[in-house]
Amino acid sequence: MYRHVLITGTTGSGKSHTAALITKRASEKLGLKVVVLDWHGEYTSLLQDYEYIDPYDNPVALFTGDPDDISVLSSILDLTPPQEYLLEKILRRNTNVVKSINFLLDYIESYPEESNWMRETKLSLHRRLSLLVRENNSTLFEARGKSDLKSLGLTSKPVIVDLARIRDVSIRRLYASFLLKRIAPSNPGREKNLLVVLEEAYNYLSKIQPVKPICEMLREIRKFGVGLIIVSQSISQLVDDVSMNTNTKIIHAVKSKQDLEVIEKSLYLDQDLVSVIPYMEPGEAVYSTPSLKKPVLIRIE
Ligand SMILES: Nc1ncnc2c1ncn2[C@@H]1O[C@H](COP(=O)(O)OP(=O)(O)OP(=O)(O)O)[C@@H](O)[C@H]1O
Ligand SMILES: [Mg+2]
Description:
By secondary structure, the chain is an alpha/beta fold. The protein has helices at residues 15-28, 43-46, 68-77, 81-93, 101-109, 116-129, 169-186, 202-205, 212-220, 240-245, 257-267, 271-276; strands spanning 4-8, 33-38, 51-53, 60-63, 141-144, 159-162, 194-198, 226-232, 246-251, 284-288, 296-299.
């Protein structure tokens, strides 16, 4: 069975360094394909050998006919249920309206108003979606397209997707979420050979504003032979799916009480080990994985 990994710890505890080391080993020693969703744009200095992807040269498709597409949009752009309903209705009625994002926006604007309620809804939906074409955002998205990513299959080096190029945070979340959704079906042969590093996973998997299809993917993605390395400062602020669906956990220094509690419970840690966790140096970690009887202290080189 393919496994997801969680790397957690307070800021500066060494999470990204560890994720980069795993990336390097997985690629060089195990021959796995690795895609890094590089939230802060730091992996080009953490890795020596890589393929660089600029999001602005690699648009992702918004609408592929998958109902989850609307759910991703809705989670991130915070659509209300009526707005979501209207968008669904428009897309269902006429797939030609998504020739382009601008075409869809015009269509929404000219949509017949059956009631005041509808007028309000369509105007607010229009306003939300127009974020997609503001400034150079429209180069990040294709209105319609296939659900896979051709560019992924081309190289054996780790692929760094430089998300930090996208300044607007909700657009960055949107681009990265759609990319992640498209990655699994792109895995050729669906062999167990693709690893995705999800930096700053709070942006996709927070309890407060989860991207629902990504949470569901955590449970399903293993079927596609895709393993996730989930990197996050706080475990207690993430949806419970994360703790439940990662059976290897690398815990760097953690100071927050809430986080320590969740870690203690989910790893069944002894008090001795728990009391060490807040004081570990960068690169030191508690390592828990099914092949070990008990979690152990490790030092990442
Ligand atoms: N295994 C290690 N050995 C020695 N130094 C390390 C190790 N891991 C990380 N460091 C150092 O600690 C600092 C922080 O590391 P890193 O950026 O990986 O932390 P982080 O947990 O990802 O932080 P953030 O939450 O801010 O992203 C870096 O300067 C790095 O060089
Ligand atoms: Mg980091």
